[in-house]
Amino acid sequence: MELPVMPPVKPMLAKSVARIPPGMHYEAKWDGFRAIVFRDGAEIELGSRTGKPLTRYFPELVEALRERVPGRCVLDGEIVIARAGHLDFDALTERIHPAASRVRTLAERTPASFVAFDLLALDDQALLDVPLTDRRALLDRALAGAGPPVHLAPATTDLTVAEEWFERFEGAGLDGIVAKPLDLRYRQDERAMFKIKHERTADVVVAGYRLHKSGPVVGSLLLGLYDGQGRLQHVGVSAAFPMKRRAELVEELAPLRMDDVTGHPWAAWSEEAAHESARLPGAPSRWSGKKDLSWVPLRPERVAEVAYDHMENGQRFRHTARFRRWRPDRTPESCTYAQLAEPVRYDLEEILGEKG
C-alpha cells in the first residue's frame, strides 16, 4: 500500500461544549466505531481510533468499499450497525470476535455500514492541510455514486437545521451534533472539533461499588433502576471522582456494606446463565479479559442523581454517568425506568436519504 497518507492515522477528535456554536459545518454525531479507511487499489485497511486494524472484523465492508469508493483514497468515518431503523451499538461490539467463523456469521446476520464524513487523501494528493470546506466538496464528489452500505454523512452549515437535527435524530440512536470550523485543517489526535450531546438526569439506586485500581477507595459506583417487574437492573456506573472523594465515599457507604452478596438483588452476578434474563454487574465479556470484575455489595437503600447523555436500547447508560448529588428525599423503589425521557423514534434510513 502506497498512499499520500499512510496508516496509522489517529482521528481528529472533538471536545464537549454546552451549545451548538454558530457559523460552522454541522453533522450528526454517530454512535459507532470510528474508522479510517485506507484504499490503494485492491488493498483496503480499516484503522481504529487507536490505530489498530479493524479489517478482519468487517469483511462485508471491505468488499463494499472496493465497489463504492475511489481506487486510491483515505476516508474518515464511522462503522455502524442499523437494525429496525436504529443504531445498535451492542450488535456492533459483538463483531469484535477472535473466531473467524463467528465473524463470518455475524457479517451475514448483522452487516455493518460505513458513514464517511471526511476525506484525508485522494489519488496522489494528501488533504490534511486543505480547509474542511474544500475537503467536504471533494468528498461529496468522490462518493457521489456510492450506495448502501457506504454512506455520505449528511451535513449543513445552517444552524437552524443543526438544532433541528439535534432534537430529531436522537430517536434513531444518534447522540448529538458535531460542529467543525469551516477552515479547519485535519489535526490528528487533537480535539479541534466540537461535540454537543444530550444530557439528562436520572435518580438511580447505588447498589455497590468497585475498588479503584490504586487501592482501597471507590473506583466506580454501580447503578440500578427497577424494571416493570420490580427487579433491580444494573444500568451503568459513575466513576469520575477526585481521589479524596473516592476515599470519602468508602466511609459514607460503610453502613450499607454487606458482608457478602447473599440476599442482594444481584447475588447471581457471577453465574453466566443469570445474565441472560437480567442486567447484572460483571457480565462475561471478551472485552474484560482477565480484569477483576468483583465488587462490593451495598444494601440498595441509597439514591443518587446522575447525568447521562444516551441510553443504549433503552436499557443502560451508553457512557459513564456523571454523579450530581445524593437524593435522600427519594426512595429506591421510585427509581424506575419510567422516569427516563424516551426520544421520539426516527428512522435512520431517512437521515441517510434512503427513503422519503
From TrEMBL:
Its EC number is 6.5.1.1. It catalyses: ATP + (deoxyribonucleotide)n-3'-hydroxyl + 5'-phospho-(deoxyribonucleotide)m = (deoxyribonucleotide)n+m + AMP + diphosphate. The keyword Phosphoprotein does not apply. It comes from Streptomyces murinus. Belongs to the ATP-dependent DNA ligase family. Residues 105-231 form the ATP-dependent DNA ligase family profile domain. SUPFAM superfamilies: DNA ligase/mRNA capping enzyme, catalytic domain, Nucleic acid-binding proteins. GO terms for biological process: DNA recombination; DNA repair. Keywords: Ligase. It comes from the Bacteria. This is DNA ligase (ATP). InterPro entries: Adenylation_LigC-like, ATP-dep_DNA_ligase, DNA_ligase_ATP-dep_C, DNA_ligase_ATP-dep_cent, DNA_ligase_ATP-dep_CS, NA-bd_OB-fold, OBF_LigC-like. One of its GO terms (molecular function) is ATP binding.
